[in-house]
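Students often ask why we bother encoding 3D structure as a string. The short answer is that it lets us treat folding as translation between two languages. Here is a chain of 326 residues written in the first language.
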Amino acid sequence: MSLNVTVKQYTDDHREVWDSFVAKSNNGTMFHMHRFLDYHPNGKWKFHHLMFYEGDTLVAVLPAGLTNATTLWSPVGASYGSIVTLDTSFERCLNIVDAFIDYCKSAGITDAYLIPPPLIYTINYDQHIEYAMLFRKADFELHYISHAIELKHGADFLEHFDATARKTIHKILREQNIWIEESTDYATFHEILVENKARHNTTPTHTLADLERLAQLMPDRLKLLMVYKEEVAIAGSLLFLTNNKVVLCFYNMLKYEYEHEKPIYLIMYETCRWAQENGYQWVDIGVSQDTKAEDPMTPSLGLITFKERFNSRGILRNTYHLSIKT
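And here it is in the second language, the structure alphabet:
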């Protein structure tokens, strides 16, 4: 039977214990690690990370921050957050959620918003924490649709892309008119990325300094692919190796004057090839929303259709909201 769960605020002397716990957890990712969060300048976020114990044993962690005196978000400054656990029982998860609610009451927090990684990120499929939150009357703030490619077909993954994708990729590989390689040229990548985002009246989440800082902090977790034609960078993708199971295509960029060369097809092929050869089970190719729509949940049908060419599947990304009643 599980012991009572107590909650403590994280301090910097817990850094190694925290990151070690995330690395061996069932649902943690690089976004839950302090090695990742360290790229933010001091004071940018009001972090409020929590650690959950049964006696002296750490059983869960929660990277989080306060957006005002009474509102907590997990994550802040990252893509995914929520409560990270080992592969554990539902009873323990319910005790962890109850301890979190009790902590929020004592700290004067009235609203908590948690964004866990989608189910495919769990090493052993499990949604105990999510169900425990729903059982304690959490509701949903938002749902996003992501798309991800399951690599269950092994080296034959390409045969499960649609006919257009297969034909395009075979042509590129045969003609060798463009090629792809790993790079450290974040400056060129980011410059083109900024141009791409400007077409949609947005800016990248990360500055060039941010990306270079992340590459220093987590060189084992970032992989930059660049596509070239006659020595000119024409496209690229920044991959985040989020955990032992999922490769995330965090950014794709393209010089649009080379769009006819279909470099994104080559990126998708090489990402899946490399991920499959290195033991990953999924390639997450990101959310598929219409960023210009008034409703943030509006799907981008054209983008979804394109992603489906690569045998991707729709994966929900949910935001859970707990209203803390005192």
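Translate back mentally: The chain has a mean pLDDT of 94. Keep this in mind for the problem set.
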